[in-house]
Amino acid sequence: MKLSHSALALVAACPGGLADFWMIYQRRYAEIGRIETTTYGTSFVRDVTEWNCANDTFTHRIFPDRWNVSGTNYGVRFHPWSSLPGPMWHDPLATVEMNLHPSTIGHQTISHEQGYAIIDANNTRSGQCHLNRTFVFDLDCWYDFGDVRVPQFHVNVNGSSMFFCESEIDVNEDTESWNGLLKLDGATQSDLEPGSEPEIRGVRVQHG
Fold first, then answer.
1. Which residues are CB-neighbours of 190 under 8 A, at least 6 positions away?
2. How confident is the model at residue 187 (pLDDT cuts 50, 70, 90)?
3. Rounded to two decimals, what is the model's pTM?
């Protein structure tokens, strides 16, 4: 991952008093033996330091794409829907609507027509975002798995930044976000459900 001078300048210029965060889009692909899982979606991160296999592969929660985020439909809607290959994945970013309850982010909309202000479900402004696609990453990582049947597993994370946002929203979405996928200590491959999410347990990073 590399940051342009303009991105670094934006980070340096932004005030530290607000709960600043970045919105990124990522695809996370994991291959463990014969099992493959792929997750696409939006993540909210605090910093834009260089991502690496040791700190960022499993850390950032991924909120899924949805065509409809009204009512109880959970996820992130992009309008117009314009899917691209990585690392951009979505472009242009005209309107991004999020329904992420019970997360503190809640139901928010960011749109070009509103100057990328963050507008909540009550039509109240809750922050300001800035379109920024300069943060690009492509991690190709191998991990020791500690199982004689599957000695190593492979994870690729590919994506880019969408917005830098200044807001009072207390975004705290950096968690170990794959509970369950790495629980193969003594388990068989049939025990692993497709779409489950792994828990990091004593793995050692090897950069690919």
1. none
2. very low
3. 0.75
Residue type for position 123: N
pLDDT tens readout for residues 14-24: 434 446 899 99
Arithmetic mean of pLDDT, 150-166:
93
Beta-strand (E) ranges in the chain?
Answer: 21-32, 35-45, 75-79, 95-99, 107-111, 117-120, 125-131, 136-144, 152-167, 204-207
- Taking the C-alpha atoms of residue 178 and residue 51, their distance in angstroms, rounded to an integer, is 18
* Pairing status of strand 125-131 against strand 95-99: unpaired
Which is it for the CA torsion 183, 184, 187, 192, positive or negative? positive
- 56 backbone dihedrals φ, ψ, rounded to 5°: -125, -10
Dihedral of CA atoms 80, 81, 85, 88 in degrees, nearest 10, equals 50
User: Does the pLDDT value for residue 66 go beyond 70?
Assistant: yes
